[in-house]
C-alpha cells in the first residue's frame, strides 16, 4: 500500500485537540494535490487529521489554519516534505513482487550479457524507493547475473520525496525480519553483520545505488534513457490525470525495449499506453519502432 494506508489505527482524539474544519482539510488537500499529486477524498479527513497532529505539536502551531499558512508559505518547503511524509506510507520490502525482478533479468540482462560484460551502459531507476529494498534488490539481481563482469557500467538511481526515508536507505542497514525475503545465496553475497539482529548491504553492492531526493511531480533533472524503471506503489493515490502524466514521462525516459514496472494495484492508462506494450503483470516494455515485432537489439 502507498499513501494513507488504512492499517494504522486512528488514535482517539483528546479534548484539547484543535478542530480540523472542512476548510482546513480543503487547504491540506489542495497543497497535497498541487505539490505532490496526492488525491485526498473527504473520506480521509479523520485520517489526515490524526497524521498531522504530530506536525502541529512539533511546530507549536495553535491550530490547523496556522499549520496550513506555514506549509503553504514561502518558507514552507521543509514542512511540505514533512507533510508528504506524514500523508504517505513507506511500506516496502526486498524482492517485493518477485516477478518484476525476474523480468528485469530476462529482459534487461540475460539477452545482453556479453555486451554488459564488455561495458555497455546499464541504467536503472527506482522512483519512489522508500527505505531502499527495491533498488538494492535491483542491484543484487544485476550482480547475480554478472558476478564477474570486468567492466560493468551499472548505475542505479533511487529517488524519493522523503529525505528522512532516504537517510535510512543510505544507511543500507536492516533488521533480520526485513531481510527475510532475500534468497539465502544473495544474503551470503550481499550482506554483512551490523550488530545484534542487524545486517548491512556490503559496500560493493550498496555503492551501485545512488540516492537522491526527487518529487515526481516536479521537474526531473534526469537524463535517460533507462533500461528499467520501477515506480511501484507510489502513484496509487495520485489522481488520474497526475498518474497519466507520470506514466507518460516515465515511458519516455525508457530506451526502446526498456522495462517499466508499476505497483500491483496500479494500471497504466493515458498516452503512455501508446508508447509501451504489456510485458506481464503490471510490467510494460517501451516500444521499439526499429523492431516492431518484438525483436530487440543490444544497443
Ligand atoms: C509505499 S512506498 C513504495 C516503495 C517501493 N517502490 C515499493 O514498492 O516497495 C511509496 C514511496 O513513495 C514516496 N512518494 C510519495 N509521493 C511521492 C512523490 N510525489 N514523489 C516522490 N516520491 C513520492 C513515499 O515517500 C514512499 O517512500
Automatic annotation (TrEMBL):
SMART domains: MeTrc (SM00138). Its EC number is 2.1.1.80. Keywords: Methyltransferase, S-adenosyl-L-methionine, Transferase. GO terms for biological process: methylation. S-adenosyl-L-methionine binds at residues 90, 92, 96, 134, 160, 215-216, 232-233. It catalyses: L-glutamyl-[protein] + S-adenosyl-L-methionine = [protein]-L-glutamate 5-O-methyl ester + S-adenosyl-L-homocysteine. Residues 13-289 form the CheR-type methyltransferase domain. CDD domains: AdoMet_MTases (cd02440). The keyword Ligase does not apply. Gene3D superfamilies: Chemotaxis receptor methyltransferase CheR, N-terminal domain, Vaccinia Virus protein VP39. Pfam families: CheR, CheR_N. One of its GO terms (molecular function) is protein-glutamate O-methyltransferase activity. It comes from the Bacteria. Methylation of the membrane-bound methyl-accepting chemotaxis proteins (MCP) to form gamma-glutamyl methyl ester residues in MCP. This is Chemotaxis protein methyltransferase. It comes from Fuscovulum blasticum DSM 2131.
Amino acid at each position: 500500500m502507498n499513501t494513507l494506508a488504512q492499517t494504522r489505527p486512528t488514535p482517539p482524539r483528546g479534548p484539547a485537540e484543535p478542530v480540523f474544519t472542512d476548510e482546513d482539510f480543503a487547504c491540506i488537500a489542495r497543497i497535497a494535490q498541487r505539490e505532490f499529486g496526492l488525491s485526498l477524498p473527504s473520506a480521509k479527513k479523520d485520517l489526515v487529521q490524526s497524521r498531522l497532529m504530530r506536525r502541529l505539536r512539533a511546530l507549536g502551531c495553535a491550530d490547523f489554519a496556522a499549520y496550513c499558512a506555514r506549509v503553504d508559505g514561502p518558507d514552507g518547503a521543509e514542512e511540505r516534505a514533512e507533510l508528504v511524509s506524514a500523508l504517505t506510507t513507506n511500506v516496502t520490502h526486498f524482492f517485493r513482487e518477485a516477478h518484476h525482478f525476474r523480468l528485469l533479468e530476462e529482459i534487461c540482462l540475460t539477452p545482453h550479457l556479453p555486451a554488459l560484460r564488455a561495458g555497455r551502459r546499464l541504467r536503472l531507476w527506482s522512483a519512489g524507493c522508500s527505505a531502499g529494498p527495491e533498488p538494492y534488490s535491483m542491484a543484487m539481481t544485476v550482480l547475480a547475473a554478472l558476478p564477474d563482469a570486468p567492466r560493468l557500467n551499472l548505475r542505479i538511481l533511487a529517488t524519493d520525496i522523503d529525505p528522512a526515508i532516504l537517510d535510512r536507505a543510505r544507511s543500507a542497514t536492516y533488521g533480520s525480519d526485513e531481510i527475510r525475503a532475500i534468497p539465502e545465496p544473495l544474503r551470503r553475497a550481499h550482506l554483512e553483520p551490523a550488530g545484534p539482529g542487524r545486517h548491512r548491504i556490503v559496500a560493493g553492492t550498496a555503492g551501485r545505488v545512488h540516492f537522491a531526493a526527487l518529487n515526481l511531480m516536479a521537474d526531473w533533472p534526469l537524463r535517460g534513457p533507462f533500461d528499467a524503471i520501477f515506480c511501484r506503489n507510489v502513484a496509487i493515490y495520485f489522481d488520474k490525470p497526475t498518474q497519466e502524466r507520470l506514466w507518460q514521462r516515465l515511458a519516455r525516459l525508457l530506451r526502446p525495449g526498456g522495462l517499466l514496472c508499476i505497483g500491483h494495484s496500479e494500471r497504466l492508462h493515458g498516452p503512455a499506453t501508446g508508447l509501451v506494450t504489456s510485458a506481464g503483470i503490471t510490467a510494460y516494455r517501451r516500444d521499439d519502432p526499429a523492431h516492431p515485432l518484438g525483436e530487440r537489439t543490444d544497443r
